[in-house]
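Standup, Tuesday
Yesterday: got the pipeline producing structure tokens again.
Today: sanity-check two examples.
Blockers: none.

Example 1:
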Amino acid sequence: MSITVGDQIGDYEITGILGTGGMGHVFQVRHTISHRIEAMKVLAPGRPVSDEVVGRFLREIRLLASLHHPNITELHTAFRHNGELIMIMEFVEGLTLSAKLSKNSMSLATGLNYIQQVLSGLTYAHEQGIVHRDVKPSNIMIGQDDRVKLLDFGLALPALGHEFTRTGMILGSLPYMAPEQVLGKQLDARSDVYAVGVTLYQLLTGSLPFKGGSEYEIASAHLKSVPVDPVAINPGIPVRLSKVVLKALAKPPGDRFQTAREFLESLNMVRAGETTTIATAMLPRAEGALASNWPENKVIDAGILDSVSRDLALHVGPIAKVLVSRAAKRAATLDELFALVATEISTEKKRQDFLSTRTKYSVYK
């Protein structure tokens, strides 16, 4: 089912396109009876999707139905239409934090206010047993009244769910991933704390704490590199605030804030003790384009991806699963996938050895 502006689905008229992502398309809609403007999320309209993707979408619907907090997007209803899953959510008019960071500089007070609202929403979600797993600026919507709404719980999991303890699942956005998430290990609320730490670091310095020329280098930096102290990049911020950020970015989860509430309380204390500095300081504009999700691959079977990951791991180690997962979102064919991940192999001989394994999938284009 393709959807275009002007179409009517049930009692909703499509009035605009808000965005697309790995889990589906989001449209602006008008309820034909109440005339309320809302957001409609449709699971990959017009294309086949795996049972796993359908399961994630259903889980997002059910999790959002259980969450009611001013800093979390509210679910209004969900239904099926011509075999397609439909989610209706509140419409928030504004910009994502990603767009705000790349558009203009902002005051330190404003930036901290946004992060405090994010942490408030996460505190509530965590206390309901929900871990978001994909906190990043493009999933933080800022309304025209400066109210923050945390978006996209498509990767969220209940902390006690059976899938939550399954290792080897690498989902999320690499620049904001905690080390344990990069390695596909068990996640908890402290993984979200790390992602908020990355986002706050980016706010304060205009730069990500962990960068690289390839996904392998970024993943390795999460695991091994020590971030530059934010106050060394932006001397205008309080030293106490810089220490809070670095604690949130600690590599062992046990060295971070143990809860979003603890992180929020530390920021509250900094704001209370540094009122003059925070009131006058300005934040730098973010450098370059901020990270976003690649469109999800439509054709390469998950079993093939697992096999390719095992072959690649012989040359690059356990990070192979991350590299293959990311490349699969860009590659339209298996040949493109091989070409993308082969660039991460350090020597020509090893690269050719890996590329030679492509023949195992000769029937797969």
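Example 2:
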Amino acid sequence: MSTDDVPRLPSSVSPSFSFECFPPRTEEQEAVLARSCAELAAVGPDYFSVTFGAGGSTRTGTPRTVAEIRERTACQVAPHISCIGAEPDEVLGLLHRYRDEGVKRLVALRGDLPSGLAAPGKLRYASDLVAFIREHTGVAFHIAVACYPEFHPQARHAEADMDNFRRKVDAGADEAITQYFYAPDAYFRFLEECEKRGIELPVVPGVMPITNFKQLARFSDACGAEIPRWIRKRLQAFDDREDRESLKAFGVDVVTNLCARLLEGGAPGLHFYTLNRSWATLKIWENLGLSKMDRRRSG
């Protein structure tokens, strides 16, 4: 598939750019996040997002981190909110809190079942959560949901995964953010499948900078994101030689080229999974020339 063959956005659509963080658990992590957010905010992202925590382990930290980033950077912040294992009243309380605090965006996810909890609760799927948010808050929030160009690891098959995505869209999602990937054709083929099904909402590619091979391999094995063999072998060679600088330079080059291909193909923006670090994301940003772009804010 060539770039000429991929779906494109109208030229009037301005890409949006966002940075994802997670709630820190220690004072040292808090200092790292504060420094990273200040550096990332300086380039003018459309918003930050803050994760909800695997199995609910950092749920109490998410609202606090959202408030701190908003106060320190004056940027919009989109809290992640997950439903599995959560009571509707708990979710509704969070929604009211965020609305009262002036939050305008949410990332609505199913989430992982907390350890030791046998039942998923009344809100079983992300589509249930999106419908619940719309029922109780109307259009107070711009809702993003997750999607998987290489398909969710728990999906029975590709068609079932697309059906799940369609349910989230029909429930009232405004946009989708993908799981990270390194094969651009997976993204463009996913857009083709969306087009066939009449799914028209923006699908923003999720981007994972590469700085640590073992960490990336662990994440990818868990979430089903494929690391192409040629990338994996190069990273493994750098890692075996403990050549960290060459590994990071190679990773920046790979992800810069990926992002350029996506933007050239009409992607409506990029969502960077920063892991609370700024260096690699900002280097990719610089390589893409985004600091020099005259971008309209999405509001």
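Quick observation on example 2: The first strand starts at residue 16 and ends at 21. Confidence is low (pLDDT under 50) at residues 1-12, 54-58, 294-299.
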